[in-house]
Write a structure and sequence with these properties.
The protein has about 350 residues and is of the alpha+beta class. About 35% of the residues lie in helices and about 25% in strands. This is Efflux RND transporter periplasmic adaptor subunit.
Length: about 350
């Protein structure tokens, strides 16, 4: 038995002693390898990212003006693009104004007996707009005419007497030369002719004064008919029949100074206020496109007429006059309007759109 036992023991494999403290670090080997791999991956990514070129920051998008659609007569649409300059398109707001506008007033004081116009009426130059009570003025004119006629008659009578006196003087001079008339007769004839000449001169002066007076009263009578000074459209009727009209306000609100207001539509233009910092970009002839607030889809071509040579200190603006290439009854005074000043190379719309 001992031999077998020894033989079996000789066949057994000797086991290593249990792991001591020196084998503990092997338990962290796999986690350490994993951490090392992760660090390698992260490091490789960082190297790749740092090695790539840095992209520059993207500039903010600049909004370009959208094409402006302009419709021609044959309904073919065309686009007019305003190319933005270094500082962009210049836009200003303003109003439609009439260069020729007048409130029609009477030159004499009187009561309105007839008003012949109303708002919206087209009137011609010299047309009668209203008539004032002219009864007294007509009588004054008639009296002045009568005085002028009396003066004319006086001149005619004195002229006849003078002609007779000169005939007597000539005859007396002839008789005196033949000693048929005395010196006293000659002197008397000369004196009478001289007096009549003076009277005729005085009568002629009185006649001239009477005629001027009659003319003045005739003009006063004519001023009782108020006429249009120019052709235009009546935009306001401020008086009524029965009211008193005077060239000067009498106060108290009982006397009016105006009959109506007339606007010459052919003098319509645009006035805008432009910041003085941008006025150097404009000049007479600069093309524009105007848009009325009332018709936002209607573009009106035009050009700068003039830059008014004065500035507003409070607003730091300069007034600019702009003319329009077309006349249209839809364009009315005091309408609000926006004006876009185009670059010199950008053409304005050839024709306007119909709203």
């Amino acid at each position: 038995m001992d031999d077998r036992t020894r033989s079996l023991r000789s066949l057994t494999i000797e086991r290593s002693p249990p792991a001591g403290p020196s084998s503990r670090p092997r338990r962290w080997l796999l986690p350490a390898i994993g951490i090392l791999i992760a660090l390698i991956v992260v490091g490789s990514g960082a190297v790749l990212w740092l090695g790539s070129p840095i992209q520059p920051a993207q500039a903010p998008a600049v909004e370009r003006p959208s094409p402006q659609v302009v419709q021609s007569d044959n309904a073919v649409q065309k686009s007019v693009v305003v190319a933005p300059g270094s500082t962009g398109s210049l836009i200003a707001s303003g109003y439609v104004v009439a260069r020729r506008k007048a409130t029609i007033a009477a030159e004499v004081t009187g009561k309105v007996v007839e008003l012949l116009v109303d708002e919206g009426m087209v009137v011609q130059a010299g047309q009668v707009l209203a008539r004032l009570d002219d009864v007294l003025a007509d009588k004054d004119y008639a009296l002045a005419q009568a005085r002028a006629e009396a003066s004319e008659a006086a001149v005619a009578a004195i002229a006849a007497d003078l002609a007779d006196a000169e005939r007597i003087l000539n005859r007396t001079q002839t008789l005196s030369g033949k000693n048929y008339a005395t010196e006293a007769d000659l002197t008397k004839a000369q004196a009478r002719a001289g007096v009549l000449r003076a009277q005729l001169h005085q009568a002629e002066a009185q006649l001239a004064a009477a005629r001027l007076e009659a003319q003045r009263y005739g003009e006063v009578l004519g001023k009782h008919r108020i006429r249009a000074p120019f052709a235009g459209v009546v935009v306001d009727r401020s008086a009524q029949p029965g009211e008193m009209i005077s060239p000067l306000s009498a106060g108290g609100g009982f006397t009016r100074t105006g009959i109506c207001t007339i606007v010459d539509m052919d003098s319509i233009e645009i006035e805008v206020d432009v910041n003085e910092a941008s006025i150097g970009r404009l000049h007479a002839g600069t093309r524009v496109e105007a848009v009325l607030d009332a018709y936002p889809d209607w573009r009106i071509p035009g050009a700068v007429i003039a830059i008014v040579p004065t500035a507003n200190r409070e607003k730091a603006t300069v007034k600019v006059r702009v003319g329009m290439d077309l006349k249209d009854p839809r364009i009315l005074p005091d309408m609000a309007i926006k004006v876009t000043f185009l670059d010199d190379g950008a053409p304005a719309a050839a024709r306007s759109d119909s709203p």
